Amino acid sequence: MSTSAATSVGAKRMQSRSERKRISAKAKEAELKNTQITDAESNSKQSKDSAFADKKNVMWVLLSGAMALTFIVMLFLPNTGMGNGMIATYSAMLWCGFFGASLWRYRNGNGWTGFAYGSVIGFTLQFVSQLI
Hints:
The protein has four helices and no strands. The protein is mainly α and 132 residues long. It folds into two domains: 1-49; 58-131. The protein has helices at residues 2-49, 58-76, 86-106, 111-131.
C-alpha cells in the first residue's frame, strides 16, 4: 500500500510540474504580448508628446518658412501695409529669423546662429524692398 500511495503522489508531482511549465509558458507569452502592447502605446504617446521638442520635425521648418515667405511677399506688393515702417522691418527680421533657427536646428546646428543669419537676410530683404 505504501508503494502504491508513493507512486500516486509521485505521479501527481510530475503532473503538477508539467502543468507548472505549461502555465509558466502561457504566462510568459501573455507577459510578452502585454509588454509589446505597452511599448507600442508608450511609443505612440511619446511621439505625440515629443513633436514640439523634436529637432528633426520638418513641420517647424515648413511653417516658419511659409510665414517668412508671406511677410516677404507682402514687402514687395504695393498697398499691403507692409512696405514701410518699423513693423515691416521687425516682421521680416523675426520670421526670417524663426525660419533660419528652425532650419539650422533641423540640420543639427545651433538655432541662435540660424536666427542671426535669418534676421540679417530679413533685414536685407526689407531694405531692398524699399529701394524697388
